[in-house]
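Fold it.
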Amino acid sequence: MLDPRFVRENIELVTRKLAERGMEFDFAEFLHLEGERRRLLSEGERLKHQRNLFSERVAERKRRGEKPGAEVTQMREVSAWIKKLDEEIKSHEERLRGILLTVPNIPHPSVPLGSSASDNVEIRCWGNPPQFNFSPKPHWEAGEALGILDFERAARIAGARFAVLVGAGALLERALINFMLDLHTKEHGYREVLTPFLVNAESMLGTGQLPKFEDELFKTADDGLYLIPTAEVPVTNLHREEILEAGTLPLSYVAYSPCFRKEAGSYGKDVRGLVRQHQFNKVELMKFVEPESSYDDLEKLTAHAEEVLRRLGLHYRVVVLCTGDLGFSAAKTYDLEVWLPSQGLYREISSCSNFEDFQARRARIKYRPAPKAKPEYVHTLNGSGLAVGRTLMAILECYQEADGSVIIPEALRPYMGGMERITKA
């Protein structure tokens, strides 16, 4: 959520920045409510001063042994008005918060201008695309031919956009999760957490999924709990409504979780295979940092996600998202895109974002810059380290052989009992 004071004092800048994101927002109601709120606050202060004067007069009469009369009545009347004003102020503040909860973050000045993904800017590339002396299969064909991917039985169990991993496929998925967790905890310094996969509405509100993305979430009928779309939600809310003491930042967490998304707008090629599933696994990186260092920390977090791809020997590129392609809560985002030879294109496998204080304001997460200092809002960052299903997908495509077998990247072999190759069972 944006700072209400910043919006009020920089309304033209905020409007222009939102326009860069392709969003027109009319702040007329916000400005009217904010003006009324400030007027009510001023009136409340005047009445409280008046109440104090009446209170002093009552006390003076009692000291003189006199019975207070009209002053008590006047004091009660003023108190009633103050209570009414406080209720109005609270109502205005709730309406103002409701408006701001629908407004996305504003882009960082370094974010390139653009209207869609075609305007994203490639900033670096690693490795080379694998070369084949045969036509590489898409991952779903390669996996089904090996007997390690079963979409037909998954559809029978749950419907479209689910997958069953079998044998070496299930082992490969588990190996990837353990490899990523070990790399991030043992070498990158993240603390592992295992959080609930169901969260309440306040948690979804804190990270920006609600109210805007209600229709994209799976929700339980009886308890009003939501299946998480990413571990970003519960991990961010680990410190909801907390003040982190001086010296505790940065905090770095890594979490494995299944993720659940309706993907209601997906169609075409993305329906095939593992690209857009209703349920998939992900290893998520999360940081709580001081504002002054947050963009340096974004570079570090992105590098940690990249290292997974490098250890696996997967060709990828890094793009910075343009203003029109930014996620709702992000001020700046790098996408890591892995190469898929069967389609001859790059596919997103991680998004690494700095939300600045946008999520912290929604979730009320603060820190003390120094002992006894006034609390300030932290900056939050997160990124996939990585999306496990998409990593498995890239391995099946990039490491496939002419005979249909798939070579296991060396970094994963210790997690697969020394297996070097997946062959048809």
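The two ends are 52 Å apart (CA to CA).
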